[in-house]
Please model this.
Amino acid sequence: MNDLSYLAGFFDGEACIRGAMQASGALVVSINISLKDSRPLYKFKQYFEVGTIALYPQEPPYKYYTFTAYSKNAGIILSTLLPLLIVKKEEALLALEAVELSRHDLINHLPRLAQIFHELKEVKRRAPEEIENSKNLKGMQLATLP
Model:
């Protein structure tokens, strides 16, 4: 197994992809990974050369480390891992679209950015079976079109 395969599996199991709407209408994408052991986080940061690692809270007994990357840096990670992702693939595609749209004329993309924001929240609430069934239904509907 190579490093990228390991990191994709690690990301699929541990990462959280979020979108935060700004007052301007921009959607800020973030990647967060929190663990008690910082070693995998440092391996992740070293590979991608982006993001930050912080210790929360500063005082024991329940300390944990969090890796965070925002927008452009999150896009670097997501675009690299995308071909290998399974669990987070749908979220990664949405987040990458938001990062790309945010680089262009924001005014023209506000409706789609708002839609992506809501879709990112919804995909987290769906069970894996619902996501798979949704994909299968879409495929069936496309196949039956004239």
Q: What stands out?
A: The radius of gyration is 17 Å. Helices lie at 3-14, 39-48, 71-81, 89-102, 106-125, 128-144.
